[in-house]
Request: fold
Amino acid sequence: MKLKLTMLFAFLSFAGFSQWVKLDTPVNNPLNCLSFTDPDNGIVAGTKGVLLLTDDGGQTWSTLMNSPMEDYTCVYMLDSQIMFVGGNSLYRTNDGGETWTMVSDMSSPQSIAFSDPLTGKCTSVSGIYETIDGGLTWTDVPTPNTSIFESMQSFGDTDITMGNVGGMITYSAVARRTSNGQWYDFDVFSFPNSYAWTGAYYPTPDTGYVFLNQFNRWIPSDHNQFIRLSNFELTMSISNELNWFFTSEIINDQVPDYMISLYFMNNSNGYACGEKGSIYYTKNGGIDWNIDYSGTVTLSDMKFINSKVAYAVGYDGTVLKHDLTTNSASPELSRSFRVYPNPAVNSCTVSGITGVERIEIISPSGQTVKVTDCNGKDEVQISLNDLVPGLYMIKYTANDQSTGISKLVIKK
Reply:
């Protein structure tokens, strides 16, 4: 029986009860990318030719056996029959994955995006490519020789791609954006520093959220940064070239993880995942990041299919699903948890926890600062003497790994 948690003092992540559930997959290969047309129909790709297809929201997966045996870095599902996957080259299927045809010899495709069934863009190590015939043929767009663009977002009239350029001792973030069908570079001096891009998402063409890392001689460091880009204007540069000038703001200079993928519902609410295996969320535009799912294996890609359903993939054949539509507690399965006193000073008691495996206290910065194993008890007392005053979260993990959150205020 699945235990769904309802707590006193409970609050919900954005809307509804936030929960990430790990789905069963038939592989343990690293999974690198995913694409869904709706909450039920999607494709996941990984190393050594792994392609998994689902039509029931990840409850079951079919393995596509006739694809090239390459390490895949990007995938795109146009519909249930037409799909693309990038490995050493770019491949297309028009029969639901039964057969695949190489449609471009571009080197190591990195991302694919379509604005309509005929018009698409693809980035690769060898540059940016465009199609106007549904991906049957692709033409390249001139780009700086040392730039590698890895992300692509298409808004119909506007396309935006981001990547890195190699310097003498490190990387720097670069980007391009279209205007009337023409590509123009971002002004490099509008970025706040020379850090490397690691993940980006644009909720609108005029607002971008970007994670950066301060690489040390091409090796990632522990210094991760989060910035917002806005106020884009196509202006003539001092070298007499049209460039995109913009405002960049450092929102958070101490991000807790090397973030790889992110999604923002609006200017306040967003999710991100990365190298450490956890999924984080923010409710204040990235100023603070809190853990929404605690994991241990690297998560490589995350996509929100709509405002309620999302998927994330990573190493060890990991596929996670987030579905707010299935997380409202039903009366026969719900339990009430009482936290008292609240506010607390030196300790607090949590009761009514039968079926809960462990309780974690999470700081405002998203770090787990205390873990208590429940060991089948109905009530536990938690010492708070070593915690500073402030607002914390209590995260409950049930025996079936479903989770819930409540507030705890500590005062001295």
The two ends are 41 Å apart (CA to CA).
